[in-house]
Amino acid sequence: MEEILNLIKQKASAYKTEVVGIRRHLHQNPELSFKEFETSKYVCSKLEEYGIEYKSGYVKTGVVGLIKGNNPTKKIVALRADLDALPITEENDVSYKSVNNGIMHACGHDVHTSSLLGAAKILNELKDQFEGTIKLIFQPGEELLPGGASLMIKEGALENPTPQSIFGQHVYPQLEAGKVGFKSGMYMASTDELHVTVHGKGGHAALPHLVIDPILITSHIIVALQQIVSRNSHPTMPRVLSFGDIIGKGATNIIPDKVELKGTFRAMDEEWRESSHQKMKKMAEQIAESMGGKCEFNILKGYPYLVNDEELTTNAKNVAIKYLGKENVVDLDLRMTGEDFAYYSQIMPACFYRLGVKNDAEGINSGLHTSTFNIDENAIETSIGLMAWIAVSELNR
User: Which domains does the chain have, with CATH numbers?
Assistant: First the structure.
């Protein structure tokens, strides 16, 4: 294993410039969720260039590649990257700035895709030195419900052959480039969207006795729903209920006919999540009715919680320490953000780890989903080498 470790490090260094170029091409040409047609064609062209077997057309833009080593049926390990960008106008002043107005790789999926291509090139060149098969999953639509992962699974992306485990990585702008982070067990929350409309009877604000005030009803609903997280779950259970969009369209002296409310609900327990959906809906509807109004409470169910398999993640962390040194591998905290990689983690042992991309000295420290997000591209060498090394190590475990 020492020999293949050294070879991977050498190849990661040699291919860094090429993969940075791939990343810049993807960054400059972002596409929105489930519309990644040119991105998909580009991924296919690189796989063809590298001589890697693949099949395209999953959920229209998804691509699945196979790298078969010796004794290819012995063990199958999957590596996943996401393809889509976000509806954000980029404000970075870089040569590879997005040319698609209002669309930007502000969540680092360009890094994920280019990294998987780079790791694939390395692994394909070393396939005579390991046993088993590596499955490459280039997935659309991570940023948009119902999530490309769930649809890829439904269309058979994990079949023929079926992997025994899956790995994914995500950029992490709070961590310095050259470092990576892991967390075993529960890692990221389930994500649901709440779309609520409260109906009343509008009128003059100076004559409240003649109206049914949907703004007042909505305020009672917002406060009351917090009981779901504060009084209906164990105090140690991570959970979040937040409302970020309230539209009343009244005025200082006008009470509107209705109020529209949008929010997010996040949890780490699927059974409690389901029961809470019913409690929220019932509570909101009854409050509105008791105050003379009506409430339409719709829940758009999103991604499940993401759990990192304890054994798989512990082994991957140790493998990363061997590759990068203990000082460059950190422990991560639980997050209430969501990820559709969670769908994979619900059906097989999975490990979702973080790639540091920050460089304070260069001013590269903007957060995800911001118009100035960027990465220290030195992280690319870390990314492609470590991903290849994790895959080989897992096949040989």
Answer: 2-188+305-395 (3.40.630.10), 195-301 (3.30.70.360)
